[in-house]
What does this fold into?
Amino acid sequence: MSERQRELFDKVENACRALELDSRQIGEDEAWAIAEALKVNRKLNDLDLYDNQIGGAGARAIAETLKVNTTLTDLKLGQNQIGDAGARAIAETLKVNMRLTYLNLYKNQIGDAGAQAIADALNVNTTLTELALCSNQVKDDGARAIAEALKANKRLSKLDLDSNQIGDGGASAIAEALKVNRTLTELDLTQNYLTEVGVSALRRSGNTTCKLKDVDRQWTAVRAREYTESQPSLNSQRTAVRARKYTESQTSVTLPTETLRFRSELAAKNLELAAKDQMLATKDQMLAAKEQMLAAKDQMIAVKDQMIAAKDQMLVVKEQELQQLRSELAVEGYDDDYEDDYDGDHE
It folds into this structure.
């Protein structure tokens, strides 16, 4: 293990109850060390790894460990770039882990494939009560898979799907699931691609147990993220016009003109916020790149220091060889003088 890996291993191995390791620039190698420590720790219940860079490989290492760990109940892996590969690994663990109750996978670039894998796990998992999949890339197919899982799952009570790409099709599938599910108490679908069609389907589910968070604000004509990715230079006025045109094209939604205007203005504000988020994300990437460059420079300096130390050792060896040679020459010179003196005495 490297010095950093050993440090994290010791910290996790000796942790009790809760441990916060958020925003520590933990990568795949460090995640492996954490996973190894979790195999021997028997006291840690809550682990927070939010805002690191463990990636899919790091998620797989931790997921494998959770197949044997029997103490961890809360795991926060938000903003770690685990993607669908990492989500699939965690899903496999959820099929056998009977201890984890809270799982946060916020902002991890998880799409339909990852959501479908997690949905498969929810079909058999009997311990997870809270799941956060907010700010990912889950679309209707992923939402439909989760909806099917909700029909069978009898344990999950809180589900956060905020800020994904779920449309009316996915919302309608979830609404059908809510007709039979009686364990879910909180569902967040805000900031998705829902129109009044999807919202109405959710309202008509007849489920009196589940609270739909901010259901009246579900409608988001076109997500601000899509706009900013395709048209980063749009100002608020042009964005509002685009959002208004979208709502006017949805003939199945009959809303008052004043409401449409307010919602268009809200979409414009969402655009501005999304643009700021992108700017922050870009700055974070630039900062991470700078830190990587500095780390590489430090490594190069360390290598150069090692080379200098090696040269110093070589100089010491050469100096010893030189001293040895001088000693040998001095002895030979003494012998020659002795022979000359001896010959002179006998002439």
